[in-house]
Each structure stands twice: as structure tokens, then as C-alpha cells.
Amino acid sequence: MSTNVVDVTKKFGDFQALYDINLAIEDGEFIAILGPSGCGKTTLLRMLAGFESPTSGTIEINNTAVADASFSVPPEKRDVSMVFQGFALWPHMTVADHIKFPLRYDQFAAYELKQNMSQRVGDVLEIINLQDKGEAYPHELSGGQKQRVSLGRAIATEPQLLLMDEPLSALDAELRIEMRREIQRLHQITGATIVYVTHDQGEALAMADRIVVMNKGRIEQVGTPEDIFYRPETEFVATFVSKANIFRGWWEGDAFHVADSSVVLANVGTTDALKASGIYALRPDQIELTDVALNDLTAEVLTRQFQGKEYHYSLNLNGQTILVQRPFTDVYEVGERVGLRAVAG
Predict the structure, then answer these.
(1) Distances (CA, A) of 129 to 124, 173, 312
(2) For 27-69, how does the pLDDT look when each residue is reduced to its tens digit (9 = 90+)?
(3) What is the distance between the alpha carbons of residues 186 and 14, in angstroms, rounded to a whole number?
(4) Where are any strands of DSSP class E within the chain?
(5) Which helix (H) or strand (E) holds 239?
(6) Over the Cα atoms of the chain, what is R_g?
(7) Closest by CA position to 264, among listed 297, 234, 293
(8) Alpha-carbon span 183 to 180, nearest angstrom
(9) Domains, the chain
(10) Which of 33, 49, 116, 251 counts the most CB atoms within 10 A of its CB?
């Protein structure tokens, strides 16, 4: 199912939540909408679902307009399923009953699925790896199992568009990583178009075909995970996704002159868009620490955190905090003065 968002804005009274959103989602694509709290990502998702209407602009699903400023097709009349942040399971219903519910009442459920409901429930239980939990109730399940039930209910009718609103935020860190793999597997099995809202960069980078980075109601950049991480086009994307350290100054060809200093840095991959803004972005893994004598760009080690194969350092560079990731063999003490050198990464 192709989905198009065309020049969409959204206001709640005097507050504008979305500004001129344009987004084309291809059939079978996994799109992650990534951004901090309050950036408008959930508002956009709710408009795709039919829970909110645009103030201006148009939303199209399968080349048919489903919402604009004058009308909105209600959620139950769109071939869309949604996975909520808080599972939204009914305590009096078994796992199998949760999966049967949309098969009974969703008008878009195919006749064959309705006629072979028991078979479809069995198929879904197998997809979500809960074959032995069909008669269990929500209170008898772990957090990960509850989320699997929520996913199973959403895919039961084979919807054309599957919307997910921060579905893993209630789970612990280790379980979130496991569920990422489950959602990827589910996408491969069903081939559904997925729009996945998250504030977690790791989730978006790990699962999505493309990432939509939002900030303050606007789209900052759309691209593959590799594009978003390695080739950020705005300062916000560079710092929010790549966790890049930002240096200000001016460019002369491939040489960057750091403001208020004599330091000149070689280009290690800054995009033209950032160059035009007089910005030099260095990810933590693109900084090498050296003896002070080797480099005019010097800083003081503030903190050191051991992370197994590497150390994470924070440095004070003339009042600016710089984040650095180095192999476990590069050991520097808190309070030590070090030089910084840009390296390709």
C-alpha cells in the first residue's frame, strides 16, 4: 500500500504541531519516524490512522484521498492496523481471542481468513512464537509476550498498512533488542507497509528501510539508515542521530578553519549542506586522541566509561563538551590533557 502525505500541517488551537509535511511511503516499505518528544511524530502517525485530521494538506492511501481539511475517513474504514505503546490488551480475553477479534469485526478482513479463523489464529500464533499460549490471559504473560500478542492482533487481518507507536518503550533494554529482531522478521513474513514511530535512534537505524527525522514539527531529513548516520544534512540530525560533535568556523575547499583559533581540520565526510552552514561535524568514533605536543587542538579528559571493547570519553575543549569513542587499548586518565585529531570513519 503506497501512502502519500502532501503539504500537511496540523494545529491544535494556537499551537502548530506540524509544518508542511511531505512524505511518500512505498508499498512494503519499513519507515521509521524518528525524533525527540514533542517533535510531531505521533501526531503524524495518528493522522495516518485516522484519529486526527490535517489542518491543511492531503493524506492519500493507495492513490485515494482519505483526509484533508474538510473530511477524514474514520479509522475503521481504512485498511490500517495499529500497535500501541501500552499493549492495549483486554484482561478477560485469551491470546487466541485477541487475534480472533479483528478477524470477526474488521470489514477489511478477507473472506477466506474469516472462514478459516482457527487456521489463521494458529498461523499468527506461529508467526509471533506463542503457539503454546493461545489459551493464556494477559496477566499470565511476560512483557515481551504481551507485545507479541499486540503485534499478532495487528497482523491478523493482513492489513495493507501497519502503524506502530513506540511499541517497545515499555520493555527493558535487553528485551527491546530481541523484539527488534521479531518485528524485522514479522515485516519479512507479512510484507506489510510499516510506519514505526520511535525516539530511539538504535531502533530506527537497526530496522528501517528509510528514516524520517523530525524536529519541532518539521522533517529534517529522509534517507536510508546509512545516509542519516554517515551523511547528516542538518546540525540537528548530526547531533541527534550521529551524536556528532559540532565545530563552527568556515570552509575553504576541503579545509575547515575552526573559529577563534588557528586550527585547520581536514574534511572527513561533512556533507555540502553542513558545509554551507559553516559547520564541521565529527562523530565520537572519528576522533583520535594523541599527545598534546602532536596537535594544537587540546582538551581535558572529564570522564571515562569502560564499554568492553572501547572507552567512552567526555572532554572539555575550551568550555565545549566533546564525546569520543576509542578502543580499549587507548587509556587516558581523568584530568589528563590530550590532543584531538580527526580521522575518517
Answers:
(1) 8, 20, 37
(2) 999 999 999 999 999 999 999 999 999 999 999 998 899 999 9
(3) 40
(4) 3-12, 15-25, 30-34, 56-61, 64-67, 80-83, 161-165, 193-198, 210-215, 218-223, 245-252, 255-258, 264-266, 279-282, 287-290, 298-306, 310-317, 320-327, 337-342
(5) helix 235-240
(6) 24
(7) 297
(8) 5
(9) 3-227 (3.40.50.300), 244-342 (2.40.50.140)
(10) 33
CA 3, CA 47: separation in Å to the nearest integer?
12
As a whole number of angstroms, the distance between CA 254 and CA 252 comes to 6
| Contact in structure between 47 and 69 (CB atoms under 8 Å) | no
Place of cell 568514533: 285
SS3 (DSSP) at 172: coil
Phi/psi of residue 39, nearest 5 degrees: -85, -10
Q: Which helix (H) or strand (E) holds 336?
A: none
Phi, psi of 276 (to 5 degrees): -60, -20
The pLDDT assigned to 66 comes to 95
Helix axis angle, 117-127 to 143-155, nearest 10°: 140
Q: What is the dihedral of CA 196, 201, 206, 211, to 10 degrees?
A: 50
Q: For the chain, how many residues are written?
A: 345
**What burial class does residue 172 get, using C-beta atoms within 10 Å of its C-beta: 0-12 exposed, 13-18 middle, 19+ buried?**
exposed
The Cα 207–Cα 336 span in angstroms is 39
What is the Cα 177 distance to its own chain's centre?
Answer: 14
For 84-134, the pLDDT digits (tens) are: 888 889 999 999 999 999 999 888 888 899 999 999 999 999 999 999 999
Angle between helices 173-190 and 117-127 (to 10 degrees): 130
**First CA to last CA distance, the chain:** 37
The rounded distance, in Å, linking the Cα atoms of 110 and 66 is: 21
